[in-house]
Amino acid sequence: MADRKKRLLTGDRPTGKLHLGHYVGTLANRVKLQQQYECYFIIADLHMLTTKNTPDDIKASCENACHVVLDAIAAGIDPYKATFYLQSAIPEVCEMNTLFQNLITVPRLERIPSLKEMAASAGRAEMPYGLLGYPVLQAADVLCVKSECVPVGKDNLAHLELTREIARKFNSLYGEVFPIPESLEGEVGTLVGTDGKAKMSKSLNNAIYLSDDAQTVAKKVKGMFTDEKRVHADIPGTVEGNPVFIYHDAFNPNKEEIADLQERYRKGTVGDVEVKEKLTIALNNFLDPMRERRAKFESEKGLLEEFIVEGSAKVREEVKQTVFEMRKAMGLASVWNRMRRKVEKRQKKQQKQNQE
């Protein structure tokens, strides 16, 4: 149909609650895109295993998956229109991963720069086989639901390009099964952490979470890094690169207030206390609507799990059909069917002989 929405796939690993950095980097964009696309959100617990695979990590992923869904809903994703699903609940995607592995070479995977960075950030001296194949499993994720669009930042363009290569090679070898997914490149922002030293991260304990209450936000803002050279309020301070003002620009809609604070900060006529107090107000005003949506969905026990389970069941039926089309195109189904028919013919012949 001409008015059919294109299908979009994106998602998160279930490693914990989402924070303001996630909102700036991905969630805000997803909320906008859901109006234009049929959205599928993968909870990528198999990808999580490349860096977090202890029994405790896996056990925690159940609760974390619900956190991911709840944070997305709180941010504005409509759970009755979007589809959330658990990657490990779709075993057929592992079969697709196996079939795709033979369409790509190890040197091609080794040229993807982000894999080495991921291994280093996870403290891995050597790259696990699963991490090297991470982009191939990503290709299976994208293509299993025949996604036509994938939102990516510059860091992940290489991953999507590999998916496109795999889809083209499969279609060329075996016949047209997959659409060639397009990238949706947008401004994928990053947000410095409250410590001012690195981008906001769960592991660095420098994050303000979407689920933090007002008091927690106030406490974290109070302890934020500012201009380390400014030991007194009457000393002119630096606005550029100052985390407190970065947060003001990102989350405070009152541009006149920001401009006034910046001017007085540069002159040394406003203290960090006032700047932070106004940031606390702005952040809590920003998070309050999310808190209301969160409370609504969190209060219904089992509802988040229901979104995931029903979404996973829906996706699995689609992926079964995709795998059927793959096997048929490759000829794998006919190999098995020829063998099975010969065995059936032989068994019928033996049965007839025994009856005689």
Structure report:
There is one protein chain. The protein is 58% helix and 7% strand. It has helices at 20-33, 45-48, 55-75, 92-101, 106-110, 113-121, 129-132, 134-144, 157-174, 214-222, 243-251, 255-267, 272-298, 303-330, 332-355, and strands at 7-12, 38-43, 83-86, 149-152, 182-185. The model has no long low-confidence stretch (mean pLDDT 92). It starts with 6 loop residues before the first strand and ends with a helix. It has 356 residues and is mostly helical. The protein folds into 2 domains: 7-190 and 305-336, HUPs (Rossmann fold, 3-Layer(aba) Sandwich); 214-296, Tyrosyl-Transfer RNA Synthetase (Orthogonal Bundle), CATH 1.10.240. Strand 4, helix 9 (157-174) and strand 5 form a beta-alpha-beta unit. It is elongated and about 105 Å long. The strands form 2 sheets. Strands 1-2-3 form a 3-stranded parallel beta sheet. A two-stranded parallel sheet has the order 4-5.
Reconstruct the topology from this structure.
Layout: E1 7-12, H1 20-33, E2 38-43, H2 45-48, H3 55-75, E3 83-86, H4 92-101, H5 106-110, H6 113-121, H7 129-132, H8 134-144, E4 149-152, H9 157-174, E5 182-185, H10 214-222, H11 243-251, H12 255-267, H13 272-298, H14 303-330, H15 332-355
Parallel strand pairs: 1-2, 2-3, 4-5
Helix pairs in contact: 3-13, 4-8, 4-14, 8-9, 10-13, 11-13
